[in-house]
């Protein structure tokens, strides 16, 4: 069985253990009837309207065996259907386990597909397309193929992608024989039992479904409440946006990131105030910032934004956003916000009074654990609704596991999937362990405009840890690809050990940054040094070629700094094939 503490990490990546590794979770604190059968086609998408009572379940992948009357209803029940849930469910089903996934009607795919990653990234693609942003380098800032941009136009694309993703997921569950139960789950205190209650489809839900295009004709769900027995359970319930009582949230003038996708906003705001310059706030602020006619003000209580990323890159992002009109009020506190007529008025502790037609509140998220009955199951949750797990994603109750955003950092779709797989591995064992062992750290992709990505150390961390390093930089305007894309602003920075030349960190900004970061991630994970980048052939013209340019630049800097052992590499120039 995988023991994550014995995980072997190679090369400079091993230095990341403890900071970014998913494998090392905090040590467990000791104190601390609408049943959609996956084997049948569902008429309505994800609404729970197809009611199938299905007392027996057959997993096509299950190993045939003698029927045991004492057997629980399921081997595994997964609460939530986001990335952690899917990965754990599929991984368990592959091992022949009988699996059920429970989520509320309309929420197949979790926050990730309905209100988080997928819609927000599609929103971005819609904005980039409709504004003509990618082509403005050639045709001027007023180039806008779509003319006036509407929320409807943006959300149209969002709804199509969300629907497509749900279809894929539904098929995948069917393919793996995973039962999908529409309802809300909670624990009653009875061991190895999950109570599932169908939920009424409320008005808010209807609105959201209309916006994301999943509304079916009959949304009513037959009410039922039923206990299911299970060998193991995974809690993967995710998070919801945090709100403040002294802000008059009305879904139109004062909104959170869920409201933004709900279709309640009739038009693109002209004056948008974004409170909270975390990942969600900065992503949406930068999207609205490139829409002609929209002015964006970003407020954060801290003096700096996105402090976990490379300082220089964040400064460049802020510069780019300012160039497009954004205003940053950092180290500022908003006391309250109220709706006045068709406006929102925000009062700041500094005495400033801001007026806008919309305020987007993005100051963090709260674990969806309230009402789950975790106390009855014997599991503690934090004030933010987060759960504590051990290295194997197991709570203090051995049959109960938790993964994804509801256990906190890093709270990404990518890492949530990995956690789900690792939980399944610990539950059942099997072959996946070896692949999981090779997993070291993880990248960040921040989908601002321009986008940012990183993996490994930042300069600040290397300095703090007294690790001697040098950097190699390539700027997009030095690259043929950059020129072809309209001289698009962007850069790649590779940090490497000044003595061993091993790659320690990769930071990039600009078009395709979230794609090309993986070149550096793989090289770093394989323990490669800067010669690996100078000696390899890259497609030309590409943004990936920036690795070669950055490597030559870095080795040249190193030679200039007096590291003679690498001086033979200083001669080559930059962007040539
Ligand atoms: C606006 C936004 C943008 C994001 N962008 C990115 C990005 O670009 N890249 C990235 O990697 N990550 C991104 N994330 C984060 C990513 O969406 C999450 O990390 C990921 O969705 C977490 O997955 P999860 O498995 O924890 O479940 P979630 O996706 O959070 O889903 C949890 C599910 O549990 C269900 N649930 C809750 N309680 C119950 C209950 N009692 N019974 C039944 N079901 C229940 C909910 O209905 C929900 O469907 C973004 C998040 C947001 C909000
Ligand atoms: N591309 C991605 O990977 C991506 C995109 C979006 C979201 N996410 C995930 O979603 C999670 C939640 O994102 P988020 O942006 O809501 O939270 P966050 O924790 O990233 O950011 C919250 C921000 O609000 C600020 N803040 C807190 N209280 C404030 C106050 N009273 N006034 C002003 N500012 C205040 C904080 O200083 C911080 O900058 C992230 O942790 C991330 O994991 C990831």
From TrEMBL:
One GO BP annotation of this record: 2-oxoglutarate metabolic process
Binding site for NAD(+): 276-283, 364
Keywords recorded for this protein, A-Z: Cytoplasm, FAD, Flavoprotein, NAD, NADP, Nucleotide-binding, Oxidoreductase
Residue stretches making up the Pyridine nucleotide-disulphide oxidoreductase dimerisation domain: 443-549
Region annotated Disordered, chain positions: 31-70
Pfam family, one: Pyr_redox_dim
Main location: cytoplasm
Residue ranges of domain FAD/NAD(P)-binding in the record: 74-420
Cofactor(s) the protein needs: FAD
Molecular function terms from GO: dihydrolipoyl dehydrogenase (NADH) activity; flavin adenine dinucleotide binding; NAD(P)+ transhydrogenase (Si-specific) activity
Location of this chain's protein in the cell: Cytoplasm
Binding-site list for FAD: 121, 405
Ranges annotated as biased composition (Polar residues): 48-70
SUPFAM superfamilies: FAD/NAD(P)-binding domain, FAD/NAD-linked reductases, dimerisation (C-terminal) domain
InterPro entries given in the database record: Class-I_Pyr_Nuc-Dis_Oxidored, FAD/NAD-bd_sf, FAD/NAD-binding_dom, FAD/NAD-linked_Rdtase_dimer_sf, Pyr_nuc-diS_OxRdtase, Pyr_nucl-diS_OxRdtase_dimer
Coiled coil: none
Signal sequence extent: none
Cofactor note: Binds 1 FAD per subunit.
Gene Ontology CC annotations of this record: cytosol
Listed NCBIfam families: PRK05249.1 (NF003585)
Family: Belongs to the class-I pyridine nucleotide-disulfide oxidoreductase family.
Name of the protein: NAD(P)(+) transhydrogenase (Si-specific)
Species of origin: Nannochloropsis gaditana
């Amino acid at each position: 069985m995988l023991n994550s503490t014995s995980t072997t990490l190679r090369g400079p990546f091993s230095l990341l253990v403890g900071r970014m590794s998913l494998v090392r979770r905090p040590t467990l604190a000791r104190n601390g009837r609408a049943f959609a059968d996956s084997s049948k086609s569902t008429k309505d998408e994800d609404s729970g309207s197809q009611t199938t009572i299905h007392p027996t379940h057959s997993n096509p992948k299950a190993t045939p065996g003698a029927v045991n009357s004492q057997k629980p209803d399921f081997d595994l029940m997964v609460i939530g259907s986001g990335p952690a849930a899917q990965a754990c469910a599929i991984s368990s089903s592959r091992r022949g386990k009988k699996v059920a996934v429970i989520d509320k009607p309309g929420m197949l795919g979790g926050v990730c597909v309905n209100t988080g990653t997928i819609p927000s990234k599609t929103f971005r693609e819609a904005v980039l397309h409709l504004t003509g942003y990618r082509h403005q380098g050639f045709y001027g800032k007023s180039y806008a193929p779509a003319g006036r941009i509407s929320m409807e136009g943006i959300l149209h694309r969002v709804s199509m992608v969300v629907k497509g993703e749900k279809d894929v997921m539904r098929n995948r569950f069917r393919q793996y024989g995973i039962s999908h139960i529409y309802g809300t789950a909670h624990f009653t205190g009875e061991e190895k039992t999950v109570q599932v209650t169908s939920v009424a489809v409320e008005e808010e839900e209807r609105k959201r479904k209309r916006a994301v295009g999943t509304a079916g004709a009959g949304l009513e769900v037959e009410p039922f409440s039923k206990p299911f027995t299970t060998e193991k359970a995974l809690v993967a319930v995710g998070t919801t946006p945090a709100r403040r009582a002294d802000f008059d949230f009305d879904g139109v003038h004062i909104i959170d990131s869920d409201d933004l996708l709900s279709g309640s906003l009739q038009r693109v705001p002209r004056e948008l105030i974004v409170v909270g310059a975390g990942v969600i706030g900065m992503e949406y602020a930068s999207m609205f910032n490139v829409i002609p006619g929209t002015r964006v003000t970003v407020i954060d209580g801290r003096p700096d934004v996105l402090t976990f990323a490379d300082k220089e890159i964040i400064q460049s992002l802020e510069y780019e956003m300012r160039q497009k009109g954004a205003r940053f009020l950092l180290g500022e506190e908003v006391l309250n916000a109220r709706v006045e007529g068709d406006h929102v008025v925000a009062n700041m502790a500094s005495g400033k009074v801001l007026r806008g037609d919309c305020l987007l509140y993005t100051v963090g998220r709260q674990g969806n654990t309230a009402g789950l009955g975790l106390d009855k199951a014997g599991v503690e949750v934090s004030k933010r609704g987060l759960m504590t797990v051990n290295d194997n994603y197991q709570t203090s109750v051995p049959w109960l596991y938790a993964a994804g955003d509801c256990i906190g950092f890093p709270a990404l779709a990518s890492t949530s999937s990995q956690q789900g797989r690792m939980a399944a591995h610990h539950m059942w064992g099997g072959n996946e362990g070896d692949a999981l062992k090779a997993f070291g750290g993880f990248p960040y992709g921040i989908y601002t405009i321009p986008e940012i990505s990183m993996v490994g150390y930042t300069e600040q961390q290397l300095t703090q840890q007294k690790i001697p390093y040098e950097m190699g930089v390539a700027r997009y305007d030095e690259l043929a690809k950059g020129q072809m894309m309209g001289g698009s602003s962007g850069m790649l920075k590779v940090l490497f050990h000044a003595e061993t030349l091993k790659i320690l960190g990769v930071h990039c900004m600009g078009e395709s940054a979230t794609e090309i970061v993986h070149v550096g991630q793989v090289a770093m994970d394989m323990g490669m040094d800067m010669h690996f980048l100078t000696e390899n052939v890259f497609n030309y013209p590409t943004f990936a070629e920036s690795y070669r340019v950055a490597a030559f630049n870095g080795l040249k800097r190193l030679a200039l700094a007096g590291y003679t052992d690498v001086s033979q590499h200083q001669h080559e120039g930059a962007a040539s094939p």
